[in-house]
Known about the structure:
The chain is mainly beta and about 450 residues long. It has helices at about 210-220, 280-290, 425-440; strands at about 40-45, 50-60, 70, 75-85, 90-105, 110-120, 130-140, 145-150, 155-160, 175-185, 190-200, 235, 240-245, 250-260, 265, 270-280, 295-305, 320-330, 330-335, 345-350, 360, 365-375, 380-385, 400-405. The chain is elongated, with a radius of gyration of 27 Å.
Amino acid sequence: MDARSVPPVDDDLPPPPPVGSETDSELPGYTHRSQEEFVQQEYQLEDSKGRPWIWLRVKSRAKEGKVLPLFYDRDTIAGTVQVDFDKAGGAKTVVLSVLAGVTAVGQDEIRFLDLNTVLWSSKTAPSKPTGKQSWPFSITLPTDTNIISERGKNQHTDRYPLPPSFSERASPAYIDYRLVVTVKRSSFRVNQMLTTNFAYVPLTRAQPPSALRQLAYREGSSLVGPQDDPQGWKVLPAVKVVGTVFDARKVEFECTLAVATPLIFPLGSPIPLTLSLKGSDEQALDLLAAPSAIRVILSRFRLVGSHATSDDIDGGRSNNSFTDICGSAYFWLSEEGAPEPGTRVLQGELEVKKSLKVGFVFSRFSVRYVLALLQFQAPGWAPASPSGSSGSSAKEPLVVQPITLASVNAVGVVPRSYAPPGYVENHEADYNTAVGYLENGNQRFLHHHGFA
């Protein structure tokens, strides 16, 4: 009998510590919470008559006992195992195991964590036990693990940080952590196992933003743009956008997207953006500088198989590369300075939802995030193929930028939103449009840009 069906599998794991927490600067900085404050959760295995005879009690960070146990990196898994030897039937050993593996759909599990503790053995016991016997256990989770892989005729050992639990519905791959109590019996009797999954969440912290951006957050003042705060922004290469306005004339303009740095953003925080347009056609600039015309999305892609750890994903195939959109930016005209002829400057934000999972790179499975500036969409605008992209589709993104998501924010930094009232509500409408746009376009756009 398997106890994994006891707690519900919740795709939205309990959130990490709140963004902007004033806590220790090193991670994990949240293991100071004592074991006495952890929630105790209990699982049991019943015999054929419905009577429990194996119990597993474990203390975890879960908010309540009805969900899966939760642990962060370097946490110690502690609890007790109890066995009723009157029902054990020739038990030889009692073993507690912490197991973890990655499984692609249709393939066998690749185990990367296997920690075993012998709680009791008939070889070392002074006498045969009777009734209920209990043993405490304490196992500290490692921070990384070795994976043996074959490269040609040789075997190589690579070391990876432990990846987070990953159990989304319809996912092409899963990362599963579990606690297993095994009562091993004599050669002619079946071993009995009590199993429960648990959620594992590595904690990562965002890096501090520029001094000027920190000052703006503290004082509630406007963000300083890339021109006056070059340390606070990554200005992406300018792209030339060509198209036709109202089927009447061909126009072109230069578009430049800038992303706030460092390029690591905590869950539940906004990603500051700026976008500038330059061109000689004022009517076309006004048309494309409308906030509803701009499409910047946060896209997540999952790679399964031997290329999952590659920095360049150009070799990815559709059957092992999976892309989905998990956010869309909203823009508004910048209030910094008077508009100049032939130039439009907009500020923007993209909210990193708290429900997202932090990315990771692991053997045979990786999850990563990129920002992508898609082609403009506006009534009367018909885009041509992007400049310099021979044979490329007008539905491919103009530019992409890999980013990293973090569990918690930099110490002492509390990000704030600068979106004018009403723009958050428009976010969902823009997002839905962006989803449809990509679904009708090139689903594998990331393969044309890579991660080099």
